[in-house]
Amino acid sequence: MDSAADAANDTALDAAVRLLEAGELVAIPTETVYGLAADAANDAAVRRIYAVKGRPASHPVIVHLHRQADPLRWASALPRTARTLIDAFWPGPLTLVLPRRPGVAQACAAGQDTIALRCPAHPLTQALLARFRAGQGGLAAPSANRFGRISPTCANDVRAELGDAVALVLDGGPCSVGIESTIVDCSSGDPRILRPGGLGATELAEVLRCDPGLLQRATGAAAPRVPGALAAHYAPRTALSLRAADAIDADWAHAHRVGVLAPRAAPAANPAAHWLQLPGDAAGYARTLYAALRALDARALDSIWVEQPPSGAAWDAVRDRLRRAAHGAGR
Ligand code: TXA
Ligand code: MG
What we know:
Blueprint: H1 3-21, E1 26-28, E2 35-39, H2 43-53, E3 62-64, H3 80-89, E4 94-99, H4 106-109, E5 114-118, H5 123-131, E6 139-140, H6 155-162, E7 168-169, E8 182-185, E9 192-195, H7 201-208, H8 212-215, E10 239-243, H9 245-252, E11 258-262, E12 274-277, H10 282-298, E13 303-307, H11 316-328
Parallel strand pairs: 1-7, 3-5, 4-8, 10-13, 11-12, 11-13
Antiparallel strand pairs: 1-2, 2-6, 3-6, 4-5, 8-9
Helix pairs in contact: 1-5
The structure holds threonylcarbamoyladenylate and magnesium ion.
């Protein structure tokens, strides 16, 4: 980065710290998606996040930490599995749900006796966390979208979602992962994935020396609430359906006011419809998916067809988000 960019970042970081310490909201870049941040120790500031997002008060938010911060300021215990995962994957797209220190971050926890902690890898947000409360503070940050909608993966998409409701958007460029972090519940018993995300079950299982199936077992009734797990979430306004490649091909010639997302080129020209080609690898596809959905949504089409993604484990998080997007779309 050149020195002019450094100076601009420096000024923006100072402004962000001042705003956060004054209880204001700042949008921050992470490697997964942009977050809408507030001082996690300031309950009034955290409640403003809920108001801006239109998020139900019962849905807890993740607390973001500097890489040298002590998770035990927030968690009452770090089980061995949590330590192993932290050593292997922080900073990175992994959120851990842990038993919460009594009395800490009440508004973030939304009534749970657990707390979700994450150490984001984005350098600008790490620099922000280093300056914020001398590196020991926490930033409460859900994704910077209105409740139920598509998470923003660049600064412009944050502005389009939230407008003047956020005091400052720290621009860290486009997100490199593009979908939200993987959430692992380490608060009791064997760890379990609550939300698939940027880090795959295979990688987690390898480090924990367990079967990926154990991490992916079904959520029981006593499990903590994960609104990201609501059936309708991450949704565009345009009706969206997941369709097989041959069904799309059969209908494409007659498609009208339709947008298609597929990891391949259009089979033929069709000026009445709109085809967006995404990368064919899971990581590349995830990185570009939300921006592509937003681009098609902005065209006010009648429907979006998304080609059914491949079935491999690498595509777990993408399939999860598309299923939910299809469920919640068109509302
Ligand atoms: O990648 C990400 O995780 C992004 C970036 C900004 O860090 N954040 C994000 O936050 O996706 P949000 O609020 O959109 O989703 C956080 C999820 C929610 O499903 C929430 O219910 C869950 O984390 N969560 C938070 N605290 C929890 C807790 N104590 N127990 C169980 N789930 C929790
Ligand atoms: Mg979200």
